[in-house]
Design goal:
Layout: H1 8-12, E1 15-16, E2 24-27, H2 34-48, H3 53-78, E3 89-94, E4 97-102, H4 117-144, H5 148-167, H6 174-187, E5 210-211, E6 221-222, H7 248-259
Parallel strand pairs: 1-4
Antiparallel strand pairs: 2-3, 3-4, 5-6
Length: 261
């Protein structure tokens, strides 16, 4: 892997271009190998004190979605494509953080020669979901028995959350906002076998309920479609304030506690 200085946005989402030096490592070319993936998931589960592999699987995929958001951030904001082909990347679990180490900082070879921004965007989104998201989601479901619909709902929420966060950046120009809207319209409006191999329906959720935020009325709270099972971890009051299971009173209590930190 290259020892390069990578952009601040990549680090924010847990993406680097350096060889991992510590932690539990999973080369994604070994994703289908139980002897490689099981120890990785078990290390994650043990560190979180997850009471069941189903809980660990759901929360692992929730962390993984941040990496996918990072790959989208790079492309949507900077037209910086990261080659996340399984043979070129490793997942690293270390210090309670899930990170991805990519072998190459250069543009993927499979984008070379493609003409037109729309064509390049479609191919990049196709490869990101077909090469990364779909096989990872299927393996997490197989090995942990986490709900497939729950994991797709988790990714859907992550996409909706980051779209909202990116659009509320005051530094954006109108052209920037328009590009973000167009990119998400393509991402959330396209279903093909190239992007979702083996699926017979579009798996993402595009409409989320919003709750009034009495502590910050200009920032309504986007509610998850399905619970991520974070509440199953040891300790009291472990629900996310975005959880669909809780009352509005508990939601504001948890929101206040989280934002007071």
């Amino acid at each position: 892997m290259h020892n390069v200085t990578y952009p601040a946005w990549a680090a924010r989402y847990g993406i680097s271009f350096t060889e991992p030096e510590a932690g539990t490592v999973l080369a994604l070319r070994d994703l289908m190998n139980d002897d490689a993936f099981f120890p990785f998931i078990h290390s994650f589960a043990d560190d979180l004190s997850a009471p069941a592999l189903q809980v660990a699987g759901s929360l692992f995929f929730k962390r993984y979605c941040l990496i996918i958001a990072g790959a989208l951030h790079g492309y949507i904001h900077c037209r910086k494509a990261i080659d996340l082909s399984p043979e070129l990347v490793k997942l690293v679990w270390n210090d309670n953080a899930l990170r991805l180490a990519a072998a190459r900082a250069e543009e993927p070879s499979w984008l070379g020669g493609l003409q037109g921004d729309e064509r390049r965007r479609t191919v990049y989104f196709d490869r990101l979901i077909a090469d990364q998201v779909c096989p990872m989601l299927r393996r997490v479901v197989e090995l942990t028995r986490a709900g497939e619909d729950t994991l797709w709902a988790t990714l859907s929420y992550s996409l909706a959350y980051w779209k909202n966060e990116w659009l509320h950046n005051d530094a954006l120009t109108e052209a920037d906002r328009g590009r973000i809207e167009d990119d998400f319209a393509e991402l959330l409006g396209t279903f093909s076998q190239e992007r979702y191999p083996g699926l017979d329906r579009f798996p993402l959720i595009t409409d989320f309920r919003q709750a009034d935020n009495t502590l910050d009325p200009e920032k309504p709270i986007l509610i998850r479609a399905k619970c991520c099972l974070f509440y199953c971890l040891p300790g009291k009051d472990r629900h996310c304030y975005t959880c669909p299971r809780i009352t509005e009173e508990m939601r504001m209590k948890r929101y206040s506690e989280v934002h007071a930190k």
